[in-house]
Design brief:
The structure is a single chain. The chain is α+β, with helices and mostly antiparallel strands and about 500 residues long. The protein has twelve helices and 19 strands. The chain is elongated, with a radius of gyration of 37 Å.
Length: about 500
């Protein structure tokens, strides 16, 4: 039995293969454009290659023929090969289990379906395209010099022919709600942190848009470095951009100090690019030792998790400590003025006896109840009985003094108790902080890494210029990074 593979040829029974219509795999390799003729005879394929008259025989299972592919338009679709964007495509052919990529320069590439991913550009949406075209028009009109053919910003916009639906720019153009993801991985802080910096890093990882604001010296660069560390650890990429070179250079200097500058490429203008490629130093000799086996990796992650729990406790204690200290200082100031009034008036001094232990909150409740009672008239026996049963107060002589005296006495009692309680609580927190800090010293984890795009001095960049950064996955004002799953936008305002 003879089975012809194709028809309508110049040679009876044969045609030459068109790579846009056929895919011929011999032992898993694409030989479509090399084969001249092919026929199946008695369970075996007979192949003749171009420029060769000899017939080669292959077993039937070693030959796979796919035809009539579906065309995918690269103009409106973003093509990814293993999560990396493939550009300059002329045609994409879908053979179901394989994709043939044909480039504008004539080069072609065959990829297995598992290695290819597609996204439809947001610019297929009419509203999004109209909005983007408007911004592009504005950008092209922003020329720094009158004789310029095209503005720098215009060139950037004109090069953006497709917009990822996962980007912040897509959300802006299509008026989609911003996304938020659950914090799944362990967040690390190898460059140190405080409560506000910890919150900023966590929001940068989970929020699609995040704003970090603070005057110089408040730790924005430190926050950026921690974001970078987490991105690298999760095998993500980071783009650090700014309106001036000094801001990005500052981040690079911090990495150099930690001997981690080899992970960064200081690019931007032509001079920076030329210098980077000309002056690249060697990678650390011991880099192979940086790789951990799965058991060691899981052990470190568990240590980090345990450390994080203790650090969270410490931050909670420190926040409480700061609030209590602030409250104590304010209360002391109030008490200074009160004691002047209290002593000058020479109020009588007497004891407030109770069956229960009196706390400041209890005294404040007694004071409020007493003031409400005397505002209505004389203190009656039912009021005295209420104070005895509810508050345990059995100092009945209290009610023989003028109301102003009683009120002042109770106020003084409240201040003394409250100040003492705050001091005790602060001392307890000091002891907890000392204990937790000591515990952390024995469980410090190492090996930290990160992924995002951050823009320093973002307040100095106009809105149209910022739009070009929205097409990245992640963005920060002082520093920002791109992620393969989400786009984060960060602004660090000085």
């Amino acid at each position: 039995m003879v089975k012809w593979l194709w028809h309508n040829s110049t040679e009876e029974g044969f045609i030459r293969l068109d790579i846009k219509q056929h895919l011929l795999l011999l032992k898993g390799e694409d030989k479509t454009d090399q084969v001249d003729t092919c026929t199946l005879r008695e369970g075996k394929w007979q192949i003749r290659y171009k420029g060769n008259s000899k017939l080669y025989t292959y077993r039937e299972h070693n030959v796979e023929w796919l035809k009539d592919p579906t065309q995918i338009d690269p103009v409106i679709n973003i093509v990814y090969e293993k999560n990396k964007v493939v550009s300059d495509l002329q045609l994409v052919l879908d053979f179901s289990t394989y994709f043939r990529l044909i480039f504008k320069n004539g080069f072609q590439k065959l990829l297995h379906a598992s290695d290819v991913r597609f996204e439809q550009s947001s610019l297929v949406n009419h509203r999004a395209k109209n909005c983007f075209d408007y911004l592009k028009t504005v950008a092209n009109s922003m020329k720094e010099k009158q004789d310029e053919e095209q503005s720098f910003l215009g060139r950037q916009f004109n090069s953006m022919d497709k917009i990822s639906p996962r980007s912040v720019l897509s959300s802006y153009l299509e008026k989609k709600p911003l996304t938020k993801k659950k914090l799944q991985q362990q967040v690390i802080f190898p460059f140190g942190f405080n409560a506000s910096q910890k919150s900023a890093v966590e929001k940068a990882i989970t929020e699609q848009v995040s704003v970090i604001e603070g005057p110089p010296g408040t730790g924005k660069t430190q926050t950026i470095l921690n974001i970078i560390a987490n991105a690298l650890m999760n095998k993500e990429t980071v783009a650090i951009v700014s309106n001036n070179n000094s801001a990005t250079a500052n981040v690079l200097q911090k990495l150099e100090k930690e001997k981690l500058d080899f992970v960064a490429a200081y690019l931007g203008n032509k001079e920076n690019k030329k210098s980077f490629f000309a002056e690249q130093g060697p990678y650390p000799a011991d880099m192979e030792e940086w790789s951990l086996d799965e058991e060691s990796s899981q052990h470190i992650k568990q240590e980090l998790l345990d450390s994080q729990k203790m650090l969270d406790k410490m931050l909670e204690y420190k926040n409480q400590h700061a609030l209590l200290r602030q409250e104590l200082d304010q209360l002391k100031t109030e008490y200074v003025y009160f004691t002047q009034y209290y002593k000058e008036e020479k109020f009588s001094s007497f004891q407030l006896n109770s069956l229960f232990r009196l706390h400041s909150d209890k005294v404040m409740k007694i004071l409020i109840d007493y003031k409400q009672t005397v505002e209505k008239g004389k203190v009656k026996w039912r009021n005295k009985l209420y104070n005895l049963l509810v508050h345990g107060v059995f100092s009945f002589g209290l009610y023989q003094h003028p109301p102003t005296t009683v009120v002042s006495f109770l106020q003084n009692k409240y201040y003394l108790l409250k100040i003492n309680e705050l001091k005790q609580r602060i001392e307890e927190l000091d002891q907890k902080l000392a204990h937790t800090t000591h515990s952390l010293r024995g469980s410090a984890g190492k090996n930290y890494l990160f992924d995002y795009v951050l823009i320093d001095e973002a307040s100095q960049v106009d809105v149209v210029l910022r739009i070009t950064g929205y097409s990245f996955k992640n963005w920060l004002k002082s520093f920002h990074m791109t992620s393969s799953e989400n786009f984060f936008l960060f602004f660090l305002f000085s």
